[in-house]
Amino acid sequence: MTLPGTPTDYERHPFEWAGEPPPIVRMDPHRLQVLRQRAETWKSEMETTEMVFTVPESFIPKLDVELEEPTSPVDIKPWLNNGLPIPPVRYDAIATSGKGWKLHLNFDYKDRQTVSGVKGFLESLRQSGKINGFKIGNGGGAEMDAPGKEATVYVGHRDKTSEIAKVIDIELVDTLLPAVGDVLENDTSFHGNVWGRFEVNSLDGDFSNYGEDGYSILQVDGEQLRYGGMLYAGLKGDAAKRVFYVAARQRAKELLTYRYGEFFTGDIAEKVK
Length: 273
What we know:
Layout lengths: L23 E2 L3 H17 L19 E2 L10 H4 L10 H6 L3 E6 L6 H16 L5 E4 L14 E6 L1 H14 L11 H4 L1 E4 L2 E6 L19 H6 L1 E2 L2 E2 L7 H22 L1 H4 L8
Antiparallel strand pairs: 1-2, 3-5, 3-7, 4-5, 6-7, 8-9
């Protein structure tokens, strides 16, 4: 789990949730220099705009630190506080909490039989442990001004999400409707009419809940793109903001990859575009 183009020049031992003492992490100074140079490059790219990118402190690795003990299986603050990637042994806990990759399904929410069929199938996936949960309506869908999100399915890992998306699309092929609304812009296509996105915003405060093509941009970048209190308002008509946004999306993808590794990118699945 490293930033693209950087060597794996540090040691990190998975923290086992069994009362073992947290590991000592020694970061090679070269890696810290690489991250700082990347931050300076991003900053120089933005000198032509009024906006400035600052690397959040939680992405700057600290040298010779002792990680504090997590307060729960889903607590990732020890790694965020020290600028380190999340250990793979934490992925399942993150997924169980409803974070990571999730899928959006579109169907005729006014047809009771359709809704019942979708609910029954998703419940069977939940009971078999193939998904971590789902919701139908309940804050989403056309009636809540969120067309295309009649059902949200929580999975977690990218590879598992790809597999489940195929299963859902095949099983509900006569039920699912094409994606519409914000899903077409903010999500990424997985299989047929099944789309989804990666979200950790309520768990990881560095990332917002806004972003195109299936993943969110950094919170600090999103704040600079607000206009009149609305995110992205006038973005397409503002060349400087558009340039900043394109760069912000690239930064977010690199930092999500650094922090969440294959939980975000997948291992056997096609990498995030």
